[in-house]
Amino acid sequence: MTLEIYPVVLELVRKLAPLLPRLRARSSALGDQLERALISVPLNAAEGAYSRGKNRQARYQSALASAREALACFETAEALGHVGPLEPEIAALFQRIIGTLVRLSLLSSGANSGLRRG
Questions:
Q1: What is the Rg, in whole angstroms, of the alpha carbon atoms belonging to the chain?
Q2: Domains in the chain: how many in total?
Q3: Considering only CA atoms, which of 31, 35, 6, 2 is closest in space to residue 93?
Q4: Has residue 1 been placed in a domain?
C-alpha cells in the first residue's frame, strides 16, 4: 500500500531537523523529545501502511500521537522563548499530517464507515 502522506511526513522532518541542534543548546531534554517524536511519525506511518487490522490502527494512532507530540514540543519551545513562531508552511504540514492520520486511524478502525477515502 502506498501511503501518500509519507513523503509529506519526511518533508516535515527535513524542515525541522535544522532546529534540533539549536533547541538542544537551550534545552537538551526538549530537543531530544522533539527528535524522538519526529522519528516516530514516519516509522509508525510506514509500519501502519503494511499492517492489518488492529495493528494498522495502532500504528496510525501512534504516528498521530507522535505528530501531535512533535507539535507540542515546538509549541513548548516557543512558549519558553527558545524558538520563534512556527512558520506557516510548517504549521500547514503539521495540520495536513495530523488530519490525514486522524482519517487513516478512523478508517482502519472501521469506526466511521461513512468516511470517504480519497
A1: 15
A2: 1
A3: 6
A4: no
Question: Cβ distance 101 to 67 under 8 Å?
Answer: yes
The grid cell for 41 is 511519525
| Residue 117 lies inside a defined structural domain of this protein | no
For the chain, give the mean pLDDT: 91
Whether pLDDT at 118 is above 60: no
C-alpha closest to that of 45 among 19, 65, 72: 65
pLDDT in tens, 15-72: 999 999 999 999 999 999 999 999 999 999 999 999 998 999 999 999 999 999 999 9
- Does residue 73 fall inside a structural domain? yes
CATH number of the domain to which 71 belongs: 1.20.1440.60
87 falls within a domain: yes
